[in-house]
Amino acid sequence: MKIVKFKWREEKGEYSLDVEFPQMWPFQIEEIEGVAAKWGFEIDNFDQHFRHQRQLGDHTGHWVPPESAEAIPAMRNALAALGYTTVFEGEESE
């Protein structure tokens, strides 16, 4: 099962997401980050020209969500359509 795990982080009144991609290949993580970027998430170290240089074993990320309340559900639906399950801290995975 391809599960993407999210944990909210609050720092100085700003919210962001710590992201974990357990047991995934770099190309899968890049696919996930591409979907998130499409929905307006700011992704640390995400650069279209250098995306394919992610190191094997680098299974974490840090994202800043956009202001839109619709971005998280839309991103989750888009990832589900690609076969990924998204789980936020405190949720049960299916």
Explain what the structure shows:
- With 94 residues, the protein is α+β, with helices and mostly antiparallel strands.
- It is built from 2 helices and 5 strands; from the N terminus they run ββαββαβ.
- A 5-stranded mixed sheet has the order 3-4-2-1-5, with helices on one face.
- Strand 1 and strand 2 form a beta hairpin.
- The longest helix is centred in the middle third of the chain and has 13 residues, at 26-38.
- The model has no long low-confidence stretch (mean pLDDT 86).
User: What is the number of helical segments per DSSP (H or I, 4+ residues)?
Assistant: 2
Helix amount, in percent? 25-40%
Biggest β-sheet strands, sense, barrel = 5 strands, mixed
Structural class: alpha+beta
Biggest sheet: strands side by side, in what order?
3-4-2-1-5
The span between the termini is: 10 Å
Name the overall outline.
globular
**What is the C-alpha radius of gyration, as a whole number of Å?**
13 Å
Mean pLDDT: 86
Unreliable spans are none
User: DSSP strand (E) fraction?
Assistant: 25-35%
In total, the number of strands is 5
- Determine the oligomeric state from the structure: single chain
Describe the structure using short key phrases.
alpha+beta; 5 strands; 31% strand; 94 residues
